[in-house]
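Table S5 (text form). Sequence records supplied for joint modeling of the three-component complex.
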Amino acid sequence: MSVKTGRRDFLKGLIGGLIAGGAIGVAGSEIYRSMIAPPPPPVKEEIPTTPLKAGIQAYLTGGGALWGKPMMQGAVLAIEEINEHGGILGRKINYVVKSETGPEETVREYRTMVLDEKIDFYVGLISSSNTPAVGPVAEELQTLSFFVDGCTDFLFESVVPDPRFSFRITNIQSADGIAAAIGAIKLLNLMEKDKVRVAHIHPDYAYGRNAHAHMQITFEKVLGRDRVEVVYEAFPGLFKVTDFTPYITEIIANRPDILASSLWGADVVNFYKQALGYGLFEKMKFVSCIAHAASPAEAVKDFPDGHIAGVHANYFFLYPEWARYPLNKAFVENYYRRWGTYPDSPSEGAYVAVYMYKNAVERAYEVLGKWPEVDEIIKTLEGMTIYGPAGPIHVRARKPNKHQSYKDGIIGISKYNPTYGFSILANPITIPISKITVPEGWEGTPDPKAGTLAYSWISQTWREGELPV
Amino acid sequence: MVKMPKRTFGDDIRVALLIIIIIAVIYPIIYVVSPGWGVVLGHGIYWVIALIGFNLLFSYTGLLSFGHALFLGIGAYTVGFMYKYLGITSIELHLLGSILSSALVAFLVGFVVVKYTRIFFAIFMLAIAQIFWSLYYKFFWITGGTDGIKVARFSIFGISLENLDFASYHHIFFYLVTGIALVLVYLMWRIVNSPFGLALKAIRDNETRARFIGIDVYKMRLYAFIISAIYASITGALAANHHRLVTPDIAYWTTSGKVVFATLLGGAKMFIGPVIGSFIFHIIESFAMRFIYWQIIMGLLIVIIIIVVPGGFIQLIKTSIEQGSRLIRR
Amino acid sequence: MIGVEEIIIRSYNIFFGASILFLIAVGLNIIYGVMKIVNLAHPAFFTLGCYAVAGLGMGVIINVFGSSPLAPILIAPPLFAALIVVIASLLIFPLFLFMSGKGDEVQLLLTYGLLLIFEDLFRLIWGSEPLRASQPYELAGSIYIGEYIVPVYNIYVIISALFVALLLWFFLFKTKQGILIRAASMDIEMTSALGANVRRVLLITVLFAAFLAGLGGGLYIPSGSVMLGMSVELLVLAFVVVVIGGLGSFLGSLIGAFIVSLLRTITLILFPELELALIYIVAIIILTLKPEGLGGGKKW
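The corresponding structure-token record, covering 1099 residues in total, follows.
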């Protein structure tokens, strides 16, 4: 070994030793320090102080605006009320409003709300074309979403059968048509007629087809198939037709006893105003499952008396009667003061949605002692019943139709009321929701043609010739 | 025969450089940008394909089609039907299916329509597109109507992506569409610089003279029409996989309007115009949609472009470069 | 089902629909006929007429004229609508000048842009909810045809449209100005060589077309409602009318409007699923077999 190499080795050793020693020293002191340091303070806050953010999505333009605007107004009213009273456990709610349109764009806006705006919960949707599109995205993006309407049975029966984050407020779609048919049978005494000639006009999309199928099967089951004769059916495009006169004349020419219809929004307004000119309402009874459900003042000012006034099996602002049920009175007064119109089905639904969230959070907090995680809120929502302006509403915890909400339906006869200056729902009858919807735990399969469990349930379990309520 | 200008090595280098620049710019953006913008970027990328295809017909052949939504719809619904009725999620098969179905329809439709030109052609295409749209809309028991057809996540090389987390899935989708777009853009570049492309330009400039020198005008137009259709349908297929929902909206004539507008916006006269147009259009659209009055914006832009800057954005860039270099030279 | 009354009722509707379509299509044909411009924004004139009445004029008219006699309320809204639309067309006339003589793509794209602008202007000015102006319709009441009831207002619309058609025919074929316009539509260069002021002819043409479309809107709106997106829906329908009747043909406007309205009614009775598609299919058949349309318009 030469001297040079030796020096190199020595240097290597020295440097190596310094590095190793330094490392050990540093490591050692860190370990020592953590051993003698006090434990870190508990990290989680009990209740965050940052405000919450709600995402609202509604029809702001076009034929659906008659529903979208009130829906948005109901949600905003609830948020403002809650903020006025200190927020949810002290947290105020901010909100953003986005437009609902066709499924593709609605989904896009939803994604933006979740990903860019970072909302804590979502309240929105009217159209049954949109909930099946947004539902899976809500699950994918794991955002607590309260669908106000878009009540298609398909959502929780086929598209999202095991929902975690998706909830729906207004009654399931099949209940709409069934309630209207039962209301017609009862209020028009159809059981006493030998034969009933039925015509149908519904918008051509999932909701219209659903209403058509369920109204029809209810008529057939309760009255008996041989008593019911379908004389005409039409499915105009949703918000695509402004001139209904060809349909009107066809319907009249076929001389039905009743005209069953789920036309809504601008469509039903156009339809009935044009139909008045042709005397349609004197020749048959109009059975609408939904005409009185939105913006009563604007929409049904001169709706003819004596026809079946449906509210989408949901809510009409006069019921439950204010004297007996102060919650409704307060809601109607506050809504009117805030927006200058009377609330309707979509407003009540959105209002309840926000309060459902608040209730669930508060209940969960009472149990857990801290602001609940989203899964904890979800577990609290499942099986919960709260009291809204329309009455008690229950969130189903188990299949089928898990996360669907249920409240009794209401239907009546249209009557012009001079105090209000528009047609109201009079002679109301309540349709207990449990009698017209598939119960929890029922194990059947959706009807292949109509696509719903309710249709199968009615076909298989209802007795012909008998009213189930 | 037409004498081909020699394609030099320099041209190929320039194209390759462009591609590398594009890749270098896009890839980091995917990671940096917020998810909302990620969606816009995605649209921008795969719409390039349809716009390049449209421009082949418009700028190089001289045929303005107001019904290109027809082929976007065919691409999208092919994917929808393949998934709904055959359970196919393979992206390769989706693309193949879209290419075949659009080629078939383009052949049948083009066979008749390509005999005519100008307004007639534009309106005919609009009418046919509307027929298909109305069938998608009305026959809801086959097409799902306005609810549409939901499509599961696609699988690539036979590997399912169902269980991947959202971000990774999106990244894969990005790489995929960028790759496909680049390949197809390059392919189109070769097409328009081939004898075929030159023949199309000749037809556009002077139909009678083209016929006189022996070009089969009808056949050339038909080929261009079919190629254009295939490109549009590939975009439709990619859109179907992106949104995972196929609705009649994609086949409605407002989609055709977007195709035309975006192409013009970027500049129809240069090859690269529609590429830029696709991105600018989707960026504007996403802003404008928040602004609510976005049709005014779109309409005003169209009017301004037609009157003032017919060459679109590219023309703006060119003139500003020229102005800039003139200033520098002084 | 097929009694005399049923036929009368259905014809009633067919003619009502045809009247409206005619008033839209004839303006489109006039602009094309003379200026060779395909004006995609033309239905927006019609919609503007509807909005002008529903969103502006009807209230004023009712205040000024009261509910009776009926005549002023029937006549004033369409005229008011026509006036508003004419003013609007004056404002955009320079665009028409720019377009004339330019290629088809320029026209199609420019007028498409115009259509979009109009659509959002409607939203800007009148909001996003549908508007109505049904007072004339309701006040006119209904009458009996056998055991059927029909609104009187629709008869008024049909008669007005016939009246307009007659006036138009007289103007185009029997007056000097009208013959000038027809000459211009056949050969604009020759006409200007003969001393006619081409610019003035173009102006009159545009104003005329606008007037007719606005009139149509004002006539239509009491029977229905106006909402966003209507122009776009009407555009496709108007084009089918024009294709079937023949682009640029006055007679074609009548024929096309009637056929489209007839087709609509038939499909509603017999093939409701094909309601939308059938109209386009017929348009394509006509385009293939007789491209100049059934009214014998000019070749494309």
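Note: Chain C has a mean pLDDT of 83.
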